[in-house]
Amino acid sequence: MLDWRGFLSQCVSRSRHWGHLSFEFCCVPREKHRVTQRRGLNRRALDHPTVCCCIPIRSAVFVSAFLTVVFALAMLVMRTGMESGLRVFTGGYELRSRVIVDLLEISGVVWGPIGMSGVLFLRTSHVRTFFYYQVFRLVGWFIMYMTDVPLLWNCELWSTDIKAATAQYGWNDLMYGIAVMNGCERERTLFVACSTTGFFVFLYFTMATQWLLSDLDDEPRYLLRVPQDRPDGAFYATSLASNYGIQQKRVLGDPVKDPGFMAASAPMGKQLP
């Protein structure tokens, strides 16, 4: 008779085991991946850390570089439309921040393909170059915050006191239009929500590029270069006439002779002793 209680308990334990493996495979952080690999738990499943709980790290960096190229080409073709659509994400309400954002975005047409080639061919120098570009974009993001946040927080000044706003920030057609249309509160809310989300998403993908770069920099032990001017110590020679050779001969005794091998290697017609 079938033991249903034992059968159900066995099924539950197996489902918990596979559920644990699937969670570890998708959502475990990269640091825990390495710790778990050292401990030998599910080494094969945790061999490749993931991004966003499901994307392999190499694919994520490639997608990031590809999107960088796409946005750069879009900025070149539709600059005005892209600036107005992405302003709440990347900023650009002031002239200096707008120039910085445009330069960083358009230069992605150069650095994006370098990152893609580095991911495809596993070239550490190319991946490192793309990583530096991402770091510069984060620095540009901070500069944008320094110039655009005070401007948006005093947006109503453009509708209440234009002279004071012009004296403090200089003339700004964009801010004047937002203030006249009573869109200051809406623009601030969208900017805080979208730019903060975009910043942390971009920071996360920059960290993913750093993870891939550190994995490429980790050279396996069997690939470490051995110095060419010194022997590796696996073999050595010593003279049998030395004291050490005589002692070894006394300890080991005379060499063992194999009659079959000696008979096969002896010349024709020669008798063995």
Task: Give an overview of the whole structure.
Helix content is 71%, strand content 1%. The chain has 273 residues and is an all-alpha fold. A hairpin with a 3-residue loop joins β1 and β2 (55-56).
Q: How would the blueprint of this fold be written?
A:
Elements: H1 4-27, H2 30-39, E1 50-51, E2 55-56, H3 57-77, H4 79-90, H5 95-106, H6 108-121, H7 124-153, H8 157-160, H9 162-169, H10 173-180, H11 184-217, H12 243-252, H13 259-265
Antiparallel strand pairs: 1-2
Q: Any low-confidence stretches, pLDDT <50, length ≥5?
A: 14-47
Q: What does the largest sheet look like?
A: 2 strands, antiparallel
The secondary-structure element order is HHEEHHHHHHHHHHH
Helical coverage, percent range: over 70%
Q: Rg from C-alpha positions?
A: 34 Å
Kindly name the structural category: mainly alpha
Q: In which order are the strands of the major sheet placed? A: 1-2
Bin the strand percentage.
under 5%
Characterize the overall form.
rod-shaped
* Overall residue-averaged pLDDT value: 75
**Number of DSSP strand runs:** 2
Distance between the termini: 77 Å
Describe the structure concisely:
With 273 residues, this protein is mainly α. The protein has helices at 4-27, 30-39, 57-77, 79-90, 95-106, 108-121, 124-153, 157-160, 162-169, 173-180, 184-217, 243-252, 259-265, and strands at 50-51, 55-56.
Keywords:
about 270 residues; mainly alpha; two-stranded antiparallel ribbon; 13 helices; 2 strands; about 70% helix; about 0% strand
